[in-house]
Amino acid sequence: xxxxxxxxxxxxxxxxxxxxxxxxxxxxxxxxxxxxxxxxxxxxxxxxxxxxxxxxxxxxxxxxxxxxxxxxxxxxxxxxxxxxxxxxxxxxxxxxxxxxxxxxxxxxxxxxxxxxxxxxxxxxxxxxxxxxxxxxxxxxxxxxxxxxxxxxxxxxxxxxxxxxxxxxxxxxxxxxxxxxxxxxxxxxxxxxxxxxxxxxxxxxxxxxxxxxxxxxxxxxxxxxxxxxxxxxxxxxxxxxxxxxxxxxxxxxxxxxxxxxxxxxxxxxxxxxxxxxxxxxxxxxxxxxxxxxxxxxxxxxxxxxxxxxxxxxxxxxxxxxxxxxxxxxxxxxxxxxxxxxxxxxxxxxxxxxxxxxxxxxxxxxxxxxxxxxxxxxxxxxxx
Length: 382
Prior knowledge:
This protein is mainly alpha-helical and 382 residues long. The protein has helices spanning 23-30, 33-38, 44-52, 69-80, 84-91, 97-110, 113-120, 143-152, 167-173, 184-207, 228-262, 264-286, 290-333, 339-366, 369-381; strands at 60-61, 66-67, 129-134, 137-142, 155-156, 159-160. It contains 15 helices and six strands.
């Protein structure tokens, strides 16, 4: 008689409430000392005290599948079938988490689907940690995880749970309304804060002055970047070219003047100099380093010095010709003069070579090879 269902209890899902637990597990519960000693003659009020003493939950544990105290009290509740008000108090209990789980499992076994969703979904926000007694010892979980397993699984705590329709089906049938989450208020608050921040950013953007991009023509060209050292070398090379061009123009002007005075001999000299200058100009455009420019400037400096020495030699020759012109005219007119006059003339002519020799020495000291050739030609003309 101790294992029979209360005569005042009504059937659940068309059967005896105790039959919701499989027969093998039910017989093992009947054989435990906890059932025989602690659960014999329990009423609904005394059941609350036993539920408050729980320190874990679970179905069976160990290799022999012994029933836990939690599943034993579930069978006792199915046997005495307490009122729904007591079950609601169990579920809403905030002080004893295992009491809440005890009421949730009993409601899942015996309650109607709309009542199950309405009463168990608020426990999704219960994050209290609980211990589960299993085959290999204790494991940790949370209340919301246990509730999710009860609502979405057909087998929990070694018990085959009754079929539970999906929430969308019940909403389509109009039996329950949409789920109201406690996070909706926080979501609305976050959306309001984001809207305010967006409005502030838009106001700042409107108040800030507009900056127009610079035209593309004003932007520095980045196609062929050139370093400062390269630009400096390029500027030095351009200045060197300008200096060489000026020097070439001065040289041409001097050549034209000398050609006017000297005639054909100056023409041949200018042609040779033009050829030399053409070679120099071609070489200057083909050079690629600063050292070669410096060497070329040195060579041209030497050429200028030679040219100035040549000019000085030619001026001295010209002055000597002017001084010797009267004496030559006098010798041609007095061809029958006396021997004394011949001696004077001979002595005068003997002085000329010495002067020429002195001029040759000066020209050799000036370093002009061409100047010596010109002096020899002038002596032949005399």
